[in-house]
Structures are given as C-alpha cells and as structure tokens.
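Quick one, tokens below. Sequence please?
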C-alpha cells in the first residue's frame, strides 16, 4: 500500500508540472486557433508538449550523477519562475495569431522554456525508478490539456473569464512544484 502511494505521487507530480507551466500555452494556442484552425494548433500543441517531456527526461538523466544533497536545491528554479511571473506586469494584450504550422510550433516551443526547466528539475529530483511514471503523468496531462484546448476554443465566451484566472494561478503552481522539489520526500534521490 505504501509504495503505491509513491507511484501515484510520481504520476501526479509529472502531471502537475505540465499543467503548472502550460496555462499560458493554452491561452496562446486558443488565439492561434482563430487563424490556423483548432485541428492544426491542437496537434502542434500536443507534439510540442511531448517533445518537451522527452527532452526534459533525457536531460535529467544526464543530471542524475549530481550529489543527492544538491539536487533538491534545483527547486529554486521553479520557485524563481513563479515569482518572476508574479512580478511581471499584467499584460492583457491580445496575442497576434501565428500563421502556419511551423510558426505555431516555433512560438509554442519558444514559450515552453518554463516547462522544460520545471520538468528537468522534477525528473532530476526524484529517484530514477520514478522517472518513467512521472513522464507518463506528464504525457497524460499534456493529452488532457489538448482536449481542454479544443473545448475552450469552441466556447469563446469562457475564454475571457479563464484567461485572467489562469494567469493568476500559474505562478503559484510553479512555486508549489519548486517547494515539492526542495522538500525531501521518500521518492527523492537518496
């Protein structure tokens, strides 16, 4: 029973890292869908998310050799990203939609640096045996976010309410992920 809790926690942490860092990409994708179409944009969104997860997984494997007592301090990065978002001036400027799949992919990829940083830190902090479970959780969350993107693109009235809420929640979620990394848990690297 006790070990299954850690397995579920690993899946949850992977999912939370994706959700915490992609609320801005959802809003950006909704704007792009108005010009490029939801099918193209949602496929691009999912592909970029899966690419970021795979890249973070690979990069974290290279960091696994760090001394275990130093790895927890990597939690400072998500906390710093969250604080930076809190201090950023509120910008409600409409995002100019991209035209074409290549431009959409480049825009989403360039906006996914926070996802990459948080995922690398999260994968590196946990024991290597839990990395595949966290990657599965992240992939499931990316797929669910894609479904949410498709649904939200159809309900334009909801977009005006969810945008401000998402912008306020995202920094706090990143700070929470950072605290989880700083906090020693039983499935951390020992």
């Amino acid at each position: 029973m006790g070990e299954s809790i850690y397995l579920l926690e690993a899946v949850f942490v992977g999912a939370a890292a994706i959700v915490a860092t992609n609320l801005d990409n959802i809003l950006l994708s909704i704007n792009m869908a108005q010009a490029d179409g939801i099918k193209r944009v949602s496929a691009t969104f999912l592909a970029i998310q899966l690419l970021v997860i795979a890249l973070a997984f690979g990069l974290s494997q290279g960091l696994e050799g760090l001394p275990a007592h130093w790895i927890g301090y990597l939690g400072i990065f998500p906390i710093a990203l969250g604080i930076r978002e809190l201090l950023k001036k509120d910008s409600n400027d409409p995002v100019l939609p991209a035209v074409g799949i290549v431009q959409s992919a480049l825009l989403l990829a360039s906006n996914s640096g926070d996802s990459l940083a948080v995922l690398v830190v999260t994968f590196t902090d946990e024991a290597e045996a839990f990395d595949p479970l966290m990657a599965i959780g992240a992939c499931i969350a990316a797929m669910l976010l894609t479904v949410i993107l498709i649904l939200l693109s159809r309900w334009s009235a909801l977009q005006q309410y969810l945008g401000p809420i998402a912008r306020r929640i995202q920094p706090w979620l990143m700070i929470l992920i950072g605290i989880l990394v700083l906090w020693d848990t039983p499935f951390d690297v020992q």
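The helical segments are 2-36, 38-63, 68-71, 76-87, 101-110, 113-125, 131-154, 156-182. The two ends are 21 Å apart (CA to CA).
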